[in-house]
Every structure is written in C-alpha cells, then in structure tokens.
C-alpha cells in the first residue's frame, strides 16, 4: 500500500466524521428550534387565555361600576330633593313669619286698651298719618260747617276710627283754646258706638289723629245741649 492510498482514506474518514458532526449539530439545532417553537405556541396560548380572563373580569366589574355610579346619582338626587324641600320649607316659614309680622303691625297700628276714665270704654291708639291738607300756612282753626278746615277735621276723625265719614254724626268739635289741637265727639250711625278723637295740626301736612276713645255715653250730644 502506498502512502498516497493511506492518506486518501484518512482524508475521507476525517471528512465523513466532520459531516457526521455537522449533521448532529444541525439535528440538535433543529430539535432546539422545534422546542422553542412549541414553547412559544404554548406561551402565546396562555397569554391569550389570561387576557380573555382579564377581559371577562373587567366586563364583570363594569356592571358593578355602573351600579355604584347609579347609587351615587340616586344619593345625589335624594340630597338635591332634600335640599329643595328644606328650601321650600324655609321659604314657607319666612312667608308665614312675614305675614305674622304684618298682622302684628296692623294690630299695633290699631291697638285697643282699657282706660281708667269712667267715661271711656276702651282706648284706640295707632300710628296715624296726617290727613293731607289743602290749606296754606299760617293755619287757623275754622269750625264752620262746610269750611275746608272743618271737612279735613271730619275726614281725619273718620280715618282714626276706620269708619266712613258719611256714616258718622259729628256732635261736637272743640279746641279748648289751643290753636293746634281739636277734640271731636262723633257717633256711628250703624253701630251705635260713641267716640272721642284727639287731633293735632301738623304744619304744612294737616290734622293728625293722636288718640281715639270709645265712650259709654254720647258725651258729644251732652256738650251740644249744654251750650
């Protein structure tokens, strides 16, 4: 056997060994790649299931959130209704208080009290305004029937006792010598009550009632008959 023949066989063996080794490496790589692909498939499948479960969990939570939101809205609506009811109640209370105040003021403006005077049944006091005058200053008392001053006196007396002027009999008017004071004695034609009303002249404004009294007897008629 020649040296060339031995070398040739050795080369072929070495080459075949290398090819076998390469094939084995490729087989190992193929197995690893296959295992990797299988692992990726299972991993993706697990992720999809987890995402699906998460999605279902989120969907399950949505109605609860809506229920909580609806509950909050109902609570807000109830609070709003309560606030509206409270406001309405407060407004009603305020209106009632205002009406009571007005009634109280009206009663104060026309207050009736008992008097120590034996001739007086009761006293009427109020915050009366002067009866508007058409007279010029300086003012002089004039008791003559039909005079402007007499008409304004009678109107002021009627307003003080809240009876129409044409429903009253004016029995007697006197000043007692005081230039800005007048006392009038009148009778209610329909009710049969007798009154004594005190007036004061307010400069540039007119006759203002100061006090009114309900009398037991017709003192005005008595004064008329005695004079």
From TrEMBL:
<dbReference type="InterPro" id="IPR009988">
    <property type="entry name" value="DUF1510"/>
</dbReference>
<feature type="transmembrane region" description="Helical">
    <location>
        <begin position="21"/>
        <end position="43"/>
    </location>
</feature>
<feature type="compositionally biased region" description="Acidic residues">
    <location>
        <begin position="95"/>
        <end position="120"/>
    </location>
</feature>
<feature type="domain" description="DUF1510">
    <location>
        <begin position="124"/>
        <end position="215"/>
    </location>
</feature>
<dbReference type="Pfam" id="PF07423">
    <property type="entry name" value="DUF1510"/>
</dbReference>
<keyword id="KW-0472">Membrane</keyword>
<feature type="region of interest" description="Disordered">
    <location>
        <begin position="48"/>
        <end position="150"/>
    </location>
</feature>
<keyword id="KW-0812">Transmembrane</keyword>
<feature type="compositionally biased region" description="Acidic residues">
    <location>
        <begin position="61"/>
        <end position="86"/>
    </location>
</feature>
<keyword id="KW-1133">Transmembrane helix</keyword>
<protein>
    <submittedName>
        <fullName>DUF1510 family protein</fullName>
    </submittedName>
</protein>
């Amino acid at each position: 056997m020649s040296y060339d023949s031995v070398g040739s066989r050795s080369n072929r063996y070495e080459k075949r060994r290398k090819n076998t080794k390469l094939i084995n490496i490729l087989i190992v790589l193929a197995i690893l790649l296959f295992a990797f692909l299988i692992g990726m498939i299972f991993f993706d499948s697990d992720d999809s299931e987890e995402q699906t479960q998460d999605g279902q969990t989120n969907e399950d939570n949505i109605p609860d959130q809506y229920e909580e939101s609806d509950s909050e809205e109902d609570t807000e609506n109830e609070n709003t209704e309560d606030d509206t009811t409270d406001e309405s109640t407060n407004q009603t209370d305020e209106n009632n208080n205002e009406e009571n105040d007005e009634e109280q003021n009206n009663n104060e403006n026309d207050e009736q009290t008992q008097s120590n005077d034996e001739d007086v049944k009761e006293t009427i006091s109020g915050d009366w305004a002067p009866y508007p005058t058409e007279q010029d200053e300086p003012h002089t008392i004039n008791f003559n029937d039909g005079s402007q001053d007499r008409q304004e006196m009678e109107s002021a007396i009627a307003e003080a006792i809240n009876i129409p002027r044409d429903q009253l009999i004016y029995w007697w008017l006197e000043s007692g010598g005081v230039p800005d004071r007048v006392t009038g004695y009148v009778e209610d034609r329909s009710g049969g009550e007798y009154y004594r009303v005190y007036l004061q002249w307010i400069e540039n404004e007119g006759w203002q009632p100061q006090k009114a009294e309900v009398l037991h007897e017709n003192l005005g008629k008595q004064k008329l008959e005695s004079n």
